[in-house]
Design a protein that fits this description.
With 364 residues, the protein is of the alpha/beta class. It is built from 17 helices and six strands.
Amino acid sequence: MRSKKITSLILSFLLCSAMLFSGCNLHVIEDPQESKSSSSPTHSSAAASSDKSSSTQQENSDQITPAVWKVSDADGNYIYMMGSIHAADDAIQNMPEYFESAFSKCDSLAVEADTTLSTSSLGASLDMFNQLSYSDDTKIYDHIPKETYDKMVEILKENNLYNPVYDSCTPAMWESLMEQVVITKSGLSALKGVDMTLINRAKKEKKNVLEVESMDFQLNLMKSFSDELYTMALSQYTEDGAIDQQVEALNELYDKWKKGTLDAKSVGVEVDEKTLEVSLTEEMKKLQEDYNNQMLVERNKGMADKAEEYMQSDSVVFFLVGAAHFYGDDGVLQLMKDRGCTVTQLSESDAESTDTEETNQKAA
């Protein structure tokens, strides 16, 4: 089954665009998590009424430890970095102390794009929807194989997500719809994604929200991909058992993010070449290579440029972009090292010991 073997392509889409189009969907999926409390166990009323020992034990058992890095240059300028997962659950309300310490020191949060703007009003959602619709009289099934279209419609109907108006939408919208099926079945929520959660928190705490790219940039990028590339990507959702495999892959990805154990292979930027030789034709390998260059390699360079710019500014910046952008030889972390920066992964021992030191360094 090919869908299992080319998960890297789909995971890259999930990492980089799961929240991108969530505000565009005219048909709302009921969030399976909404019926539960939106607060973490350590902040619930039940926890509040328990004794201190029980609360501490509960906090420790629920603690997550995602990777956070401090990146410093030779002049003592620094920036904090963390990879985002665009679909999550309430676990991210219980971040470790080293994250809280770093985030509290930051004046600004830098993200790929402020995704809250696309869901802030009906007008914004409709504008995005129009950008993802064909301006001529063609339909989605004029651009991709009818068999792929029919199978996607079947899947969307099964998940109460199909609307005939989507037939006028480009493959980018359909890819987003299929992602939402995967996210919903995984028990996660795009509205609770790391980026969405931290953007809302930053605004509440009166921090500046900086856009490394912009929503328009990402929309134009997604619209630039060929029908052939989207045909390959969308077909991965329609094979027998493919949705279940994508659900499993997304949950594994999120679990590794929570534990801080993501690497180049788990985020799909490093793949098994032998597997590709078996599963992909030469045309498909060329499509994937072009996609990776546009979606990751070239964007990573731009992200490193922005990180360097933020690092040399007067404010302390927390840099949050999709996790796939950090790993591998072309990842942001390696690019920063190549530019002479020191990259240090934070741990609990860093939470308090560096607080005064970093404040003094930045003030100087």
